Amino acid sequence: MVQLLADRADVDVVAMTRRKLPAEALPPGVECAVADYADPPALRAALKGVDTLVLVSSDGPDARVLLHHRNVVAAVVAERVGHVAALSSVDADSASPFCYAVVNRLTEDLLLASGVPCSFARASLYIEFFRGWLTQARSTGLLRLPAADGRVSLVARDDVARALAALAVGGPTGRHHDITGPESADLAGIASTAAEVWRTPVAYVDIPADTYCAETAATGLDPWWLYAFSSLFASVREQRWDQVRDDCAQLTGRLPRTLRDVLSERA
Ligand SMILES: NC(=O)c1ccc[n+]([C@@H]2O[C@H](COP(=O)([O-])OP(=O)(O)OC[C@H]3O[C@@H](n4cnc5c(N)ncnc54)[C@H](OP(=O)(O)O)[C@@H]3O)[C@@H](O)[C@H]2O)c1
């Protein structure tokens, strides 16, 4: 994201990170501001004189993420930032079973209620995120997940970054934009694409949610992530990630990449 914005001649970029970076770690001309979403005074200092904030959502337990986003909104209002281009998700709905769908919707509502001009990039699931499960399946031959016949419009992470950058440099749109991949597939289709690219058998096996929890808990995964992933697959089963939109191409001027494109790069 920082590189995409730094490549433009018409904007000055400040990269906010949690620890001071040496100048050589950033593109030429990019300043560094140090702040944590948990630290309101540092956020205010980082946002002084900023016209547009690109808000990359926080991560981890949902209550903490929401607190981080509240801190950011308060600092944005206090420092009179002119536009927030915020990352959200296609499933941004307080009625969703997915924990981050609720957080993302509450964050959008907070920003809208604050009166600050906004634009929202609602991303589908990242290919790079989903690849974690595909990589496991590559060695076992089985993609065992509780997704039923849920379909997902997987999107490349850098296509999301390009769309968010385009929103940041445009004027506030006051609405959300659905940043999806160019196609949607069920998990059998996703497994079959991975199998073709990798030339190895990968088959989807739909498993009950409680079996997924028991199998995943046995791997030692942190309980928060077990809950987060279980709630994600509950939202997949409700077909909340199925939609395909052309907002990404409209914002970036290029077609988003397919799952096959991304997997082929590192086959
Ligand atoms: N759609 C999906 O499939 C999907 C999947 C996973 C996550 N997500 C969401 O998308 C976000 C971005 O994902 P990504 O893969 O692009 O993550 P990433 O490369 O790790 O980038 C996260 C950025 O957020 C900053 N950040 C995180 N916690 C922070 C805090 N407490 N205070 C200040 N800055 C903080 C990080 O700053 P530092 O430079 O200090 O590390 C980093 O710049 C995630 O945070 C999560 O909300 C979406």
Give the percentage of residues in beta strands: 15-25%
- Main sheet summary: 4 strands, parallel
Number of domains: 1
Q: Pairing-aware structural class of the strands and helices? A: alpha/beta
Query: In CATH, what is the homologous superfamily?
Result: NAD(P)-binding Rossmann-like Domain
**Total of DSSP H or I helical runs spanning 4+ residues:** 11
Low-pLDDT parts are none
The strand count comes to 10
Strand order of the largest sheet: 3-4-5-8
Bound molecules: NADP nicotinamide-adenine-dinucleotide phosphate
| Element-by-element helix/strand order | HEEHEHEHEHEEHEEHEHHHH
Rg over CA atoms, rounded to whole Å, is: 19 Å
Helix fraction, binned, reads 40-55%
Query: Regarding CATH, which class?
Result: Alpha Beta
CATH topology: Rossmann fold
Mean pLDDT: 97
Question: What is the rounded distance between the termini?
Answer: 25 Å
* Shape summary: globular
Give a verbal description of the structure:
It comes from Streptomyces ambofaciens. With 267 residues, the protein is of the alpha/beta class. Helices cover 46% and strands 15% of the residues. The chain has helices at 2-6, 40-47, 62-78, 99-114, 127-140, 157-169, 187-198, 209-217, 223-237, 247-252, 259-265; strands at residues 14-17, 31-34, 52-55, 83-89, 118-123, 142-145, 151-152, 176-179, 185-186, 203-206. It has a four-stranded parallel β-sheet with strand order 3-4-5-8, with helices on both faces. A two-stranded parallel sheet has the order 1-2. The protein has a two-stranded parallel sheet with strand order 6-10. Helix 3 (62-78) links the parallel strand 3 and strand 4 (83-89). The chain starts with a helix and ends with a helix. The model has no long low-confidence stretch (mean pLDDT 97). The structure holds NADP nicotinamide-adenine-dinucleotide phosphate. Residues 17-18, 36-38, 56-59, 68, 87, 89, 123, 125-126, 129 line the site of NADP nicotinamide-adenine-dinucleotide phosphate (NAP). NADP nicotinamide-adenine-dinucleotide phosphate binds at residues 17-18, 36-38, 56-59, 68, 87, 89, 123, 125-126, 129.
